[in-house]
Design goal:
Elements lengths: L5 H14 L3 E4 H7 L9 E5 L3 H13 L6 H9 L3 E4 L6 E4 L8 H7 L1 E3 L2 E3 L2 H11 L2 H21 L2
Parallel strand pairs: 2-4
Antiparallel strand pairs: 1-2, 3-4, 5-6
Helix pairs in contact: 1-3, 2-6, 3-4, 6-7
Length: 157
């Protein structure tokens, strides 16, 4: 499995901006864009759930050369909770209902923008991993909390 690269995050950012997609990087990919020292195999993107945003998202994904069939297009446009894309230039998880975050608008208000990337606040990334309660998430929580504390004290006065 290949490692997700910064260049791919730029491609997502640029295509989503072109089509007006409302999204936030979340999960470890979001933390990495904030400076968290780790790697991940895919990008996790929290997407606003609306038909218009879903249609814009499908157009952006096709421009990025993801193969989107009719069933997957319908899932994206209606905002199915989780859509995993593996038929494209890299692996991408679309999350319309992340654990631990009730509403997109709440996360959007708390977002962090870095180099044009819209990223969930570290508290939301941690809260989502806590709520998911998967083993791999529990194993990274202490490091993520330490990073958040450093980030808040040194990078975000």
């Amino acid at each position: 499995m290949a490692t997700f690269e910064y260049r791919q995050a730029e491609e997502i950012r640029d295509a989503f901006a072109k089509y007006g997609v409302r999204y936030l990087f979340i999960g470890k990919s979001g933390a990495i864009l904030l400076g968290y020292p780790d790697t991940t195999q895919d990008a996790d993107v929290y997407v606003e759930k609306s038909e218009a945003n879903g249609k814009a998202l499908v157009a952006a994904l096709r421009e990025l050369e993801f193969e989107i069939g009719e069933a997957q297009q319908a899932d994206i446009e209606r905002g199915r909770d989780f859509v995993q894309l593996k038929d494209g230039p890299f692996d991408l998880d679309l999350i319309f209902a992340p654990d631990g975050i009730e509403r997109f608008e709440d996360a959007w208000r708390r977002r962090v923008e870095v180099e044009g990337f819209f990223v969930c606040h570290p508290d939301d990334i941690i809260g989502s991993k806590e709520a998911a309660n998967r083993r791999k998430d529990r194993e990274s929580l202490d490091r993520l909390r330490a990073f958040r504390d450093y980030w808040k004290s040194k990078l975000r006065p």
